[in-house]
Amino acid sequence: MEKKRMVILGAGESGVGAAKLAQKQGFEVFVSDFGGIADAYKADLQRMNIPFEENQHTEALILNAAEVVKSPGIPPKAPIVKALVEKGISVISEIEFAKRYTAAKTICITGSNGKSTISMLTYHILKKAGLNVGLAGNIGHSFAAQVADRHYDWYVLEISSFMLDDMYEFKADIAVLLNITPDHLDRYDYKIENYAASKMRIVQNQTAADVFVYCADDEETKKALQAVNIQAKQYPFSIIEKVEPGAYLEENTIYINTQLNNKLTMSISDLALQGKHNIYNSMASGIVAKVLELRNETIRESMGDFKNIDHRLEFVAKISDVTYINDSKATNVNSTWYALESVNTDVVLIMGGVDKGNDYTMLKDLVKSKVKAIICLGKDNKRIHEAFEDDVEVIVNTFSAEEAVQVAYHLAKKGSTVLLSPACASFDLFKNYEDRGNQFKAAVKEL
């Protein structure tokens, strides 16, 4: 019998993982990347004897596929994707593909901000409670590679809107939507409603046996909910009003209630993650844990001893009474808003990079009240200057992490905070946000 041909577009973590699973499932596999392939991934493909090409997409080798798994980073407007769609060839995400080959239950977390933190926190709680759980999606190792190699009963999946756009049959057993704020609007015709519709795909195919967790305080989520018929059992969370079942805040105590008579309470001062936005994060993970009927004691313990991910409000050093914080993962305006909101001192803010159609208006009040200087770190900083020239006395351009840190060192006064929270993507000067964060940390340690 002739093998079905599976083509993978993109040879990063998700693409190479999908290739591995496709090979294991007996497909004839070909991998194509329009850019260069990293040495480590190239070595993986060579070891598996999977043919591949880089720096091009050869149509003759792609348009004969039975199905195509596309990396989330490749836009639907890419010529090769348009050609596939015109030929009627199915184009899906790695998440959609991998789910076909596992009976594991999935906890799927999406939102413009906080999804990495909540994915890690939820994984931490479940692991500590003794569940056999994997972590995948936008974080950690590829979902497809884990389905090929390991056996988990549960997966915590961090899912971006780009992944959701290529998901059709996939169903989340527990879906979590944290918030919807303008991000990646360049992929959605600069319309927030298109982006919101993409995020709402997290509930598609859910039944009454499934669970949907969402933020009742988020305006765009409330709007988006009106356009969708949700079958799943709903658990909202709020710090403004009392919601039951669900989670709410009252006098510095979180209450989480998913079933009668077994409420979890926890003082916010006992949470490992501090700051208003992290109350939401802890509530969302807490609801998931309660839905799974984990013990209150385990949940409390896990929410109290969790260590946050690198590059997300990560303390780097205190030098001459100035605190340096690495929030390189803040690649959109809303993330930077959260970062500024959680710092209680004067701030020297390092921001900039590849602007994704950002609207900086939401930062203006916080910048006026807290930010004493802005250090731009990027090739084109015109829009940052235009947005904040009336709000901040000093705006300086820099073109390397080392230069930005040196300038910050001279501008920061005792007792203040130097905060790297770019609100932009990193690809103009760095490989990715991790590279940007690591270069920042290295430069701070050189002071």
Share of residues in helices? 25-40%
Beta-strand percent range: 15-25%
Query: Separation of termini?
Result: 65 Å
Question: What is the name of the CATH topology of the largest domain?
Answer: UDP-N-acetylmuramoyl-L-alanine:D-glutamate ligase
Q: What Rg do the Cα atoms give?
A: 22 Å
Provide the residue-averaged pLDDT.
93
The count of DSSP E runs of length 2 or more, i.e. the number of strands, is 20
Main sheet overview: 9 strands, mixed
Strand order in space, largest sheet: 7-8-6-9-10-11-12-13-14
Question: How would you name the CATH homologous superfamily of the largest domain?
Answer: Mur-like, catalytic domain
Main structural class? alpha/beta
Poorly predicted runs? none
Tell me, briefly, the overall form: globular
Summed up, the helix count is 17
Looking at the overall shape, the CATH architecture of the largest domain is 3-Layer(aba) Sandwich
CATH class division of the largest domain: Alpha Beta
Description:
The structure is a single chain. With 447 residues, this protein is α/β, with parallel strands linked by helices. The chain has 3 domains: 5-92, Rossmann fold (3-Layer(aba) Sandwich), CATH 3.40.50; 96-305, Mur-like, catalytic domain (UDP-N-acetylmuramoyl-L-alanine:D-glutamate ligase, 3-Layer(aba) Sandwich); 314-445, Alpha-Beta Complex (Protein-Tyrosine Phosphatase, Chain A). Helix content is 34%, strand content 22%. A 9-stranded mixed sheet has the order 7-8-6-9-10-11-12-13-14, with helices on one face. A 6-stranded mixed sheet has the order 15-16-20-17-18-19, with helices on both faces. Strands 3-2-1-4-5 form a 5-stranded parallel sheet, with helices on both faces. β17, α14 and β18 form a beta-alpha-beta unit. α6 packs across α11 (276-291) and α16 packs across α17.
